Amino acid sequence: xxxxxxxxxxxxxxxxxxxxxxxxxxxxxxxxxxxxxxxxxxxxxxxxxxxxxxxxxxxxxxxxxxxxxxxxxxxxxxxxxxxxxxxxxxxxxxxxxxxxxxxxxxxxxxxxxxxxxxxxxxxxxxxxxxxxxxxxxxxxxxxxxxxxxxxxxxxxxxxxxxxxxxxxxxxxxxxxxxxxxxxxxxxxxxxxxxxxxxxxxxxxxxxxxxxxxxxxxxxxxxxxxxxxxxxxxxxxxxxxxxxxxxxxxxxxxxxxxxxxxxxxxxxxxxxxxxxxxxxxxxxxxxxxxxxxxxxxxxxxxxxxxxxxxxxxxxxxxxxxxxxxxxxxxxxxxxxxxxxxxxxxxxxxxxxxxxxxxxxxxxxxxxxxxxxxxxxxxxxxxxxxxxxxxxxxxxxxxxxxxxxxxxxxxxxxxxxxxxxxxxxxxxxxxxxxxxxxxxxxxxxxxxxxxxxxxxxxxxxxxxxxxxxxxx
Length: 470
Known about the structure:
Blueprint lengths: L18 H24 L6 H14 L6 E3 L1 H12 L1 E4 L2 E5 L6 E6 L4 H4 L7 E5 L2 E2 L5 H8 L6 E7 L19 E6 L1 E4 L3 E2 L2 E2 L5 E2 L1 E2 L2 E9 L6 H14 L6 E5 L8 H9 L6 E7 L9 H6 L8 E4 L11 E5 L6 H11 L3 E5 L7 E7 L6 E10 L32 H14 L21 H4 L1 H9 L12
Parallel strand pairs: 14-15, 15-18, 18-19
Antiparallel strand pairs: 1-21, 2-9, 3-4, 4-5, 5-6, 5-7, 7-8, 10-14, 11-12, 13-14, 16-17, 16-21, 20-21
């Protein structure tokens, strides 16, 4: 496990503990051990000690903020996969059907073993290595498919049960089922997407119908995000016609690594503050603990991260798209470019997640603490964290510029999601065209996506026609 922060900053090594704190913690530790031993010895029903420990951890962290947690070994691999953007597996993005819990293929990762094998969105996984997955949680099915590279896994698939082309046998099983043997590989996930897929699976960065405007859709901030942005920006700069505007779409971005967010901001700034962080000031050696707990939380020195020279596309105007799901590292980028006057911000107010979580490994080497250790502020000095008592009138998160404020209806967002999913799929060689004449994906982006359409207007790409997605 790389020693890094889950969302923002590494804090290693942990400060040495003073003698009085160690003694105090020892008392509570012995008491906790006595409680567990009493339960194991005297409780009416046998209790699984691992489950009991996890429930105890849930209780401990319930008294902290919602972003702090105990991360078990089972969750550690998932955490690594998200931050590293790599995992050993077959490259299937799965979802559980809310109607019956069946496991449905959401999308194969382009270039992965599942993608090369022709597995399609909508197919249902019925068994893995001969064992049925019916009734099993999604997490368990994902774990069955992942594993060491160069090992194989057998996957049984069936067409969606509500597909009119499905023909069932006398026993009710779908005739359209098939079995695929896949070899696991290192699968690399993308965090930077373009306007639409090309036939070879690569991205077209120019917006269809507005080819002088390019787009970067950043869906998370991981280890490879900055490198992906570099590749995209190089392709955009070398393309024709000359780019006249750039849209950075952060809608739905839950955050990620501080390092990645800072590096992305640095690509667009020559100078200025990117973000500032401040933690709790360490207690003095002889501090009175009761006084420390009742007083206002002491804050440590402000740590400021600044841009370095070498920005790209310096003469190209930028628009940043946000919504209520833009959080954490996504908010760092949006606030940074807005406060430095580098972008116009379009959409709706962001989530308001402005605290720092550090990963603190435990002695077993297979679990850790995800602990809130500090908070960050935007370049203006304003906080991003939305606290429980805050209202819409308070200062938190990132708000769009007045001219860029737009909140699509739920119905529009549903149509937009279907339109976007179709454009993100890479056409397969020899397959029928993805877009039929009556498919909503034939609509140009400026018409299908009202938030993007507003951004195009603010970038000077012409007046947007008031056309809703079909």
